[in-house]
## 1
Amino acid sequence: MTAAVIVSIRVGASPLRAFEAFTEEIGEWWRPNPLFMLTPRGDGYLRFEPGEGGRLVATLANGKEFEVGRITVWRPGERLALTWRQATFAPDQSTELDVRFEPTGDETRVTVEHRGWDAIPQDHVARHGFELMLFQRRKADHWRLLLASLNAVLRNGDE
């Protein structure tokens, strides 16, 4: 897996607080995008089951759960990594999400690296027929919006 989308943002919180907001409050900052829906029925409500081996789960409006991925690295305040799949992926298809939390003075740089999109064929519904470079740009735009939403949750929680 080589093709990656990499997006960073600085947030006014400690690395531990940023990690907690990313994982414990994902249901508050996650914003669905019609191009990148996790399931054909939407994204539902996301939540992490903490720890290595835990899961990222989407609970859909009908009560069914979809496992987005399994956590491979859980280091609060430092790093989170997990497999990532959409419901339309074949059983052998997945991507990887790697999130780093790095102190930069009084702030934290949150970096999302979402890799493995080159393993998903261009004609797959998840890629919408986009060539890889265009797809990665669109996916990066989505992650930028998500990180901005995370930052807003962190700012509102500190007021």
Note: The longest strand covers residues 65-75.
## 2
Amino acid sequence: MNDQQLERYRHDLDFLRAMAAQTETDFARFGYPLTFNSELQPDFRRFCAELAPRLREWCKVEGDRIRSLLYHIDLPEHMIPEGYGCRDTELLAERILQRELIKVVLRKHFSG
């Protein structure tokens, strides 16, 4: 799924809510407590802005575990920024959420 195909889902509230829930679940499986602010309307850019500082924090403490998390999320290697994203957590956050959104979109299209 390319960026153009994915773009419409980045503005669909139901898909964004499902993406946030999927991301929280995947992070929790690795012991990373992550909860997006559910009081605000879902927004892809805001979710990226919420995730990036958490990633920066986790990279400082346990950078090696980030590699396992990215594998679990199924983030393709070519999408992982240099240094497993710990050098550019904003880009890493965007790529993680993009992958999570793709998973949600594919699941909804193939399960229904």
Note: The CA atoms of residues 30 and 68 lie 9 Å apart.
